[in-house]
């Protein structure tokens, strides 16, 4: 049977279990004509989604990488409920509140960066970092304009975040309207890769060359490029990148929207890699995945560049829901849980390891890799490499038929479970992946 036919057949089987798509809802990243209806879920607990009239589904990707400790975690739910009865929202330009104070103190201590600036999501946390970096130079009377980013990067969907991300089918309608960005390749690596040194060297040479032009900042997803395909690099490479940034007197922005809060095996990926960023963007796991919130941490050097009586020195940026007290309460509760049991993220790699070692023996896969809670590999495909390859859809449908939710990035299959996942549930995730692989041949 052809792969496309197989996919259609699977979809039909699955659709019998689903509602029809609500005509008034426009889902994200979704082709409105041909996509399957959304599945209705009223409850979730821990690593499990619990749709009505259907067996539980294991959330193998933490609901788009946000659910950190597990769904409906009682400790975080209580913290939000308690806060909601105290103070639900307040204008943060003129007032502050205990949860925001606490969160700022904690994140400043944990990251070593002085100040915290609140926004609403990952994209805005990146926008803020980019705007701060540009204005920091401008405030010094320096009108430099080059920003350097990596090929394959994803930094969000608003215009500035799109501009620094890879130009592709997602950005194509807007490409003309995005500010120019200089780019260097991303020397991703994997188990058994023997050629990484040569690739890293080439990238560093390109970077050296670009940094001869005065540069606002280099923006990096530390250790793992997420949406670009769970592409992992070595810490040693990132350290060399930072050396060059310092030598050129530029700034380093680490976009930790995905990698922060234990995802990469330490609290923050920049710490594991041994970097000292000037600006850090955080979101996704920040509130344990309960509420949308973004923050941008900035070093003392950056914030000092905004001191002065001249209104022009001000960072004129803010969002209506800045420092929403419910979000702050959730974030503080999530930090409590991370502090209480750090081994949950410190040890996660060793839980993936035996499963991935087993699955790499499958001749249909290549480039296995693990960083922290993220395990990934590529499906070998002959043509149409990348996000639009349909093998991912086949894998997804057949894993779902055995109760495992994954969402491959085209030919890249990965797991990124919540920290609460049990050994049995994790084993089942890999069983779901094996089912998916079997459906391919
Ligand atoms: C998801 C993501 C973003 C965007 O975050 P949103 O909350 O979806 O806007 C930015 N950067 C990285 C690295 C991400 O993974």
From TrEMBL:
The keyword Phosphoprotein does not apply. The record marks 29 as: Participates in the substrate recognition with KAPA and in a stacking interaction with the adenine ring of SAM. It is an enzyme of class 2 (transferase). One of its GO terms (biological process) is biotin biosynthetic process. Its EC number is 2.6.1.62. Keywords: Aminotransferase, Biotin biosynthesis, Cytoplasm, Pyridoxal phosphate, S-adenosyl-L-methionine, Transferase. Its cofactor is pyridoxal 5'-phosphate. The keyword Transport does not apply. Pathway: Cofactor biosynthesis; biotin biosynthesis; 7,8-diaminononanoate from 8-amino-7-oxononanoate (SAM route): step 1/1. The modification N6-(pyridoxal phosphate)lysine is found at residue 284. Gene3D superfamilies: Aspartate Aminotransferase, domain 1, Type I PLP-dependent aspartate aminotransferase-like (Major domain). GO terms for molecular function: adenosylmethionine-8-amino-7-oxononanoate transaminase activity; dethiobiotin synthase activity; pyridoxal phosphate binding. GO terms for cellular component: cytoplasm. It is found in: Cytoplasm. It catalyses: (8S)-8-amino-7-oxononanoate + S-adenosyl-L-methionine = S-adenosyl-4-methylsulfanyl-2-oxobutanoate + (7R,8S)-7,8-diammoniononanoate. NCBIfam families: bioA. PANTHER family: ADENOSYLMETHIONINE-8-AMINO-7-OXONONANOATE AMINOTRANSFERASE (PTHR42684:SF3). HAMAP family: BioA. Homodimer. This is Adenosylmethionine-8-amino-7-oxononanoate aminotransferase. The gene is bioA.
């Amino acid at each position: 049977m052809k792969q496309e036919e197989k996919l259609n057949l699977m979809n039909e089987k699955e659709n019998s279990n689903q509602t029809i798509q609500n005509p008034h809802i426009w889902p994200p990243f979704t082709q409105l004509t041909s996509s399957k209806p959304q599945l209705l879920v009223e409850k979730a607990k821990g690593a499990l989604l619990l749709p009505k009239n259907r067996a539980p589904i294991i959330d193998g990707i933490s609901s788009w990488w946000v659910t950190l400790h597990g769904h409906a975690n009682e400790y975080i739910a209580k913290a939000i409920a308690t806060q909601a009865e105290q103070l639900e929202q307040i204008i943060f330009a003129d007032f502050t509140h205990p949860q925001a104070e606490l969160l700022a103190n904690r994140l400043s201590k944990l990251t070593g960066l002085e100040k915290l600036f609140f926004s609403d999501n990952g994209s805005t946390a990146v926008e803020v970092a980019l705007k701060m970096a540009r204005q920091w130079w401008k405030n010094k009377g320096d009108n430099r304009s080059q920003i350097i980013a990596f090929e394959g990067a994803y930094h969000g969907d608003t215009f500035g975040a799109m501009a620094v991300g890879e130009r592709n089918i997602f950005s194509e309608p807007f490409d003309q309207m995005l500010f120019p960005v200089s780019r260097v390749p991303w020397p991703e690596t994997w188990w058994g890769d023997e050629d990484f040194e040569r690739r890293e060297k080439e990238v560093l040479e390109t970077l050296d060359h670009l940094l001869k032009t005065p540069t606002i900042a280099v923006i990096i997803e530390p250790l793992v490029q997420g949406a670009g395909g769970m592409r992992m690099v070595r810490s040693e490479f990132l350290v060399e990148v930072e050396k060059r940034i310092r030598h050129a007197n530029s700034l380093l922005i680490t976009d930790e929207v995905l990698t922060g809060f234990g995802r990469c095996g330490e609290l923050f990926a920049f710490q594991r890699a041994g970097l000292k960023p000037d600006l850090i963007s955080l979101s996704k796991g920040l509130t344990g995945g309960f509420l949308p919130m973004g923050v941008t941490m900035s070093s003392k050097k950056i914030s000092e560049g905004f001191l002065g009586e001249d209104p022009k020195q001000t960072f004129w940026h803010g969002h209506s829901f800045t420092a929403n007290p419910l979000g702050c309460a959730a974030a503080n509760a999530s930090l409590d849980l991370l502090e209480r049991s750090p081994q949950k993220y410190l040890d996660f790699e060793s839980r993936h390891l035996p499963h991935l070692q087993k699955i790499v023996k499958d001749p249909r896969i290549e480039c296995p890799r693990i960083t922290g809670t993220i395990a990934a590999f590529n499906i070998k495909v002959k043509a149409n490499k990348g996000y639009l390859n349909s093998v991912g859809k086949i894998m997804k449908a057949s894993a779902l038929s055995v109760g495992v939710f994954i969402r491959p990035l085209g030919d890249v299959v990965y797991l990124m479970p919540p920290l609460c996942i049990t050994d049995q549930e994790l084993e089942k995730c890999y069983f779901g992946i094996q089912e998916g692989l079997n459906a391919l041949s």
